[in-house]
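Supplementary Note 2. Why include the ligand at all?

Several targets in our set were suspected to adopt different conformations when bound, so apo predictions alone were not considered sufficient. For every target with a known small-molecule partner we therefore ran a joint prediction. The input for iron/sulfur cluster is given below.
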Amino acid sequence: MTIEDLGTRRTYDVRTYGCQMNVHDSERISGLMEDAGYVRAADPEAADVVVFNTCAVRENADNRLYGNLGHLRPTKLKHPGMQIAVGGCLAQKDRGDIVKKAPWVDVVFGTHNIGSLPALLERARHNEAAEVEILESLEVFPSTLPTKRESTYAGWVSISVGCNNTCTFCIVPALRGKEKDRRPGEILAEVEALTKEGVLEVTLLGQNVNSYGAEFGDRLAFGKLLRATGDIEGLERVRFTSPHPKDFTDDVIAAMAETPNVCHSLHMPLQSGSDRVLKAMRRSYRQEKYLGIIEKVRAAMPDAAITTDIIVGFPGETEEDFEQTLEVVRRARFSSAFTFQYSKRPGTPAATMPEQVPKAVVQDRYNRLIALLEEITWAENKKLVGKKVEVLVAVGEGRKDERTGRMSGRARDGRLVHFATGDLAPRPGDIVETVLTYAAPHHLNADGEPLSHRRTRAGDAFEAGRTPKLKGVSLGLPTVGVPAPLPATSGGCAL
Ligand code: SF4
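The joint prediction is reproduced in token form.
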């Protein structure tokens, strides 16, 4: 019995946890479901199929999943034919245990076989038995799968999956495997296809974008890829995440500075400022190298906004180590930071390390770090008051705040801007130029009349309720192996 046999199209809802890579993969899951004849549920609580795309990075990731599955059980009992599927990193880690702990789950699929979901759902329904399928390595590049994008103006484009590093606190390599690089031509084709759809901003995605090309022997491939995006007509903003300080090379800084559509915003995970802790984390760089990169980036792009990730309370971290982290924060002047209290991740080397730091000490350090970061981000934001900025009006952030009459969006450096619209009626996806009038620690306001409003195709698409729906991008050649080399810097020739 297939979907069509039911006459009515079954509905689906995807619930995403974790990182941008999961957001990217969830767009593929939606694309697959729609390709298989499902429609997105207008009311997620009434969906025929609920798909959890899980994260395994945080300690409470498990509790959250099993908590949500527990909540869904009574709904399923009242909704005959309803199916529940669990995918993503936690599924890759827990596998069949998920069905043992929650026997009302119908399908468990991993990070390497997203494409199997529709077939697994059908098989589970036909056999009235749970289907668990986990692969040890990538079946097909998720980017080659159909996709249903969330945004009319911004797109995630993966350039590689997996990671070759072995940071001792991280479970990603165990769950997403070794790094596999997409061919540049395929990446650029996907970016071009998106731009043709009206998308203005693309974020290149990879666990470690700086090692892109290692698989096909071109250490300068990432810098070349950035330059190549510069030639794509209509593409106004290029961002990337996540770089790794150990592989961050000068050619990438030059490509950022010399390619007009590459935004001067850089997310550079620090994790710790202490060389001793960085060694224990197996991060393969030290404080001096990290600050050296920041200095070079600022020399090449004085307006660059730099953000970071910091873990507080890594096993063995002393007060002196923590002071080193604060020292780097003082010198790096981040525009914002993702901060984490270290939490044990079973299966990672750090989880069994001695000298786990007591919670109260971690909390105290965390509070001091937040206070310092806030002081600095606010001071850096205050320097921008009076400056003219270009804002890409964003959904969610883009709604009109009835109380203040402001809309919101992101400046080219990634900062969040709330702006008065005056008599204009910008739509998400449009571009507004305005002058900053007020700075807060985590956002900026522009309360004067906007200087200009550019209506874009992305704004038209938003107004028309259209989001890009792309068939998987593949040049029909074998997916893994040596790609056509990227022409040096002149572009024209892809996390
Ligand atoms: S670079 Fe380190 S932290 Fe990042 S995904 Fe790879 S192993 Fe994890």
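Residues 163, 165, 167, 170, 172-173, 207-208, 244 surround iron/sulfur cluster (CB under 6 Å). The longest strand covers residues 305-312. Comparable summaries for the other entries are listed in the accompanying table.
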